[in-house]
Amino acid sequence: MKTKIFCTNNRQYYTVEKGTTLRELYAQMAWNLDYPMLGAKVNARTVNHDYEFYEPKDVSFFDITSESGFRMYSRSLHFLLCAAVHDLFHGCRVSFEFSRSHCGFARLSDYPESIPEEAIDRIKGRMTELVRMDLPFTRYEIHATDLARMMRERGSIDKAELYETSGMLYETYYEMDDYIDSYCASLVSSTGMLSLFDVKAHEDGLLLVLPQRTKPAELISVRKQPKMMAELKSRIDFLNRLGIRNVGTLNYITTSQRAAVEVGTVIRVTEAILENRIAEIANRIASDPAIRVVLIAGPSSSGKTSTSKRLSIQLAAHLRRPIAISLDNWFVNREDTPLDEKGEYDYESLYALDLQQLNQDLADLLAGKEIQLPTYNFEKGCREYRGKTMKLAPENMLVIEGIHGLNPELTAMIPDRAKFRIYASALTSISLDSHNYISSHDNRLLRRIVRDYQFRGASAQDTIKRWPSVREGEERWIFPFQESADAILNTAMIYEIAAIKPHIIEILRDVPHNCPQADEAQRLLHLLDYFRPIKDDEIPHQSLLREFIGGSVFEL
Question: For residue 58, what is the enclosing H or E element?
């Protein structure tokens, strides 16, 4: 009995015996990836070497240089580290809290203040030993209620609560040697595939360092980001005190009338935290009369527009009169726009802006002069002057939001003492469970898909297709300048993915199964499966989240 498989990598059909594994199929092909094959997307579902074929399928093999391969390698290393800690320190709990330069930051319950180098060396040594043994990761699928019971028996209450509340019928877990753990997607087939990693002591925890995606033979070089780390850890510590660190707990609050805290209270507290932080930043700005320009930067869908509106209100309460201007009006004419590596217009580039004219206009405004205010005609692709003018009074200040706000070239002619720089981003702090944190990139992508669909007429397929180039632009033009900010604003909210869920499910389901973006849509749908939805009527109309789901009191 045989079946046909279509490989999308080389556009070839292969006839194989039913029951042939992914590993066996790959070995039959006169074609190879640049690096070791980690797995494949089979009909848009990520699988590892052990997957067996019984029916016709489309297959796309990947290595670590792909997003799917990098996630699989990272996820498997997380398992490996947790297994090593389990073997070495009986009863010690690992809590992965967030990603730092694409590497996992974790704390150990046995070492709440700092992890000694001797313990780090033992963990790394045990991980290396497990890799050398090339042990299989064995996948099991059981009833979610049975997995929840299994996790409770092992003391993993956060995982138990997740499976008790998600509403899923079946769930998967993995076993390696005598250690079991659960992850939200596939692992590699065996420990021997995880040949490159490092473990380093990092502040009060450790950092699991991964290979570079573009240079898999080299480890990621981790940038020092003390301001970002402080902001993330501050939010996580607050969530721990609030008792809502994981999605299972949030689900209980969302669905149970007997929960200790009502979901409305959680939402109001979350909104108050953000408003207090914006007010604190406004106080700092208003107390310094030398500041005339506020620059709000951040990656896509970080909430820059709502932040500028809410900050302007807070500044007005201090009798400062903020005026918002859009950098889009200083775009160069379309024919002068720089091109990216694909030969397409690169609107993410700093040099898509007329920096000389922008700086001259800003300098003139701060000098008390009147300027001709440009308007960019996006239909014609050119800057126009339509008789609009602007002049600043002594109590006025400019509020400028855009992705390049922290880049010193953007406002090179403006003295530093006249500027205040804010970096806004959705630094996701709630996790699925202690071993599965939620990427800030995924948080922002969910926001953008909903916003683009509702306000820009773009499908989820369009947004997902565009997302890799957006990410590349962020890595080049935004992230290198994060630490130069005078203030970092975390716009992520505990409840927001649960609130986005009702808006995005059908949008993601509309992504055709035969397009390259289908696997990403399915991955996001699987992530959303873990959340119980929150209805719109619970969300305040002044919430930053309204910038994306609609119904904001602000003119956006």
Answer: strand 57-62
Count of Cβ atoms closer than 10 Å to residue 76 Cβ: 25
The residue type of 462 is D
User: Which tens digit of pLDDT belongs to each residue from 292-348?
Assistant: 999 999 999 999 999 999 999 999 999 999 998 888 899 999 999 999 888 888 888
Helix and strand element counts for the chain (H, E): 15, 23
| Joined tokens for residue 105 | 């930051």
The CB density around residue 483, as the number of other CB atoms within 10 Å, is 15
Nearest to 306 by CA among 23, 27, 552, 57: 552
pLDDT given at position 421 = 97
Please answer whether residues 388 and 373 qualify as being in contact, where contact means their C-beta atoms are separated by less than 8 angstroms.
Answer: yes
DSSP state of 349: S
Distance, in Å, from the CA atom of 125 to the CA atom of 438, rounded to the nearest integer, reads 28
Q: Which of 497, 35, 104 is nearest to 270 (CA)?
A: 497
DSSP 499-536: HHHHHHHHHHHTS-TTSTTHHHHHHHHHHHHTSPP--G
Q: Angle at Cα 492 formed by Cα 439 and Cα 443, nearest 5°?
A: 35
Q: Coil, helix or strand for 191?
A: helix
Closest CA to 430 of 525, 497, 479: 497
Structure tokens at 405: 């706000």
Distance CA 188, CA 361 (A): 55
Kind of pairing between the strands at 396-401 and 321-326: parallel
Among residues 492, 488, 493, the alpha carbon closest in space to that of 225 is found at: 488
pLDDT in tens, 106-123: 999 999 999 999 999 999
Phi-psi bin for 101: left (phi > 0), alpha (psi -120 to 50), beta? left
Residue type, 530: Y
Rounded CA separation 486/367 (Å): 24
Side chain identity, residue 493: M
Here the tokens at position 386 are 């339509």
- Measured between alpha carbons, how far is 455 from 471 in angstroms, rounded to an integer? 21
Pairing of strands 419-425, 487-490: parallel
